[in-house]
Write a structure and sequence with these properties.
By secondary structure, this protein is α/β, with parallel strands linked by helices. Helices cover 40% and strands 24% of the residues. It is built from 10 helices and 9 strands. It has a 7-stranded mixed β-sheet, with helices on both faces. Strand 2, helix 4 and strand 3 form a beta-alpha-beta unit. Helix 5 packs across helix 7. The radius of gyration is 17 Å and the shape is globular. The protein binds S-adenosylmethionine (SAM). S-adenosylmethionine binds next to helix 2.
């Protein structure tokens, strides 16, 4: 289930998402006159870069978190359309020519439903270009969470290449390429690591906990990590609507 994000703290972090977003923009093959959906746009960082490069793109920024959308709106003003919506429900937008997405799809459990919703929103021949967490990601954090909570990590789904290709095809997409790419992030400063974990990786856990339990929980998880590394593995998707 989607939850609210601390958009301001998120935006101030040293996010590897910046590079992942630039990678997605490189892969999109835009001409500059398309209508584009940023699915799970967050604070609108990638949308701002996109509009700098292609100012005539008709951009829709969609996210389930109203705090993320509020920050994106502050950043982009009139330059984009903003929608608070859940990617697993029929999207309340006019059709688009292309979909981009950065670090969002692993928050959705049912990828076939997600890809179906996106396929419904895209014109035939439109591209889907995305980056999200993939199979093998966050083993260190998962181990730490098992130590602290007694259970494996929940709320995220890190898909592999074969299951992603199958889900895309079943939802009406032609697969151009799907690949996994390790991209570990080391954060030696314990305070920064705790803020990062609380804001980026553990928000779903904290949303279900009283506020006074947040700090001790995040500290316990950080101390249980075998090394101060967020062992990201990125799943990069390039597909075309059939
Ligand atoms: C890690 S943030 C990435 C935001 C932005 N794309 C970036 O790269 O900074 C994940 C985003 O996905 C959104 N999200 C998660 N599940 C969602 C869903 N079911 N529908 C819409 N947005 C969702 C969250 O609200 C959050 O803004």
């Amino acid at each position: 289930m989607p939850f609210e994000w601390d958009a301001r703290t998120y935006d101030a972090l040293p996010l590897p998402h910046v590079a992942w977003g630039l990678g997605v923009l490189e892969r999109m093959q835009l001409t500059g006159s398309e209508r584009v959906l940023d699915a799970g746009c967050g604070t609108g960082r990638d949308a701002a870069v996109l509009l700098e490069r292609w100012p005539d793109v008709d951009l829709v920024c969609l996210d389930a978190s109203s705090t993320m959308i509020a920050t994106a709106r502050e950043r982009l003003g009139e330059r984009a359309e903003f929608v608070v919506a859940d990617l697993t429900e029929r999207l309340p937008i006019e059709p688009v020519d292309a979909v981009m997405s950065v670090a969002a799809f692993h928050w959705v459990d049912d990828h076939q439903l997600l890809f179906t919703r996106l396929a419904e929103a895209v014109r035939t021949g439109g591209r889907l270009t995305s980056d999200c967490g993939g199979e093998g990601q966050l083993m260190i954090l998962d181990q730490a969470l098992q130590t602290v909570t007694g259970s494996p990590m929940t709320l995220t789904r890190f898909a592999g290449v074969a299951d992603t290709e199958a889900a895309l095809r079943a939802a009406g997409w032609k697969v151009a390429s799907v690949r996994l790419r390790p991209d570990p992030l080391r954060l030696d400063d314990p305070d920064l690591l705790e803020t990062y974990l609380a804001t980026v990786n553990l928000g779903g856990y904290l949303a279900a906990m009283p506020a006074d339990e947040h700090r001790p929980f995040v500290r316990a998880v950080r101390e249980a990590m075998s090394e101060p590394v967020i062992d990201y593995v990125r799943l990069e998707i390039n597909a075309v609507r059939g």
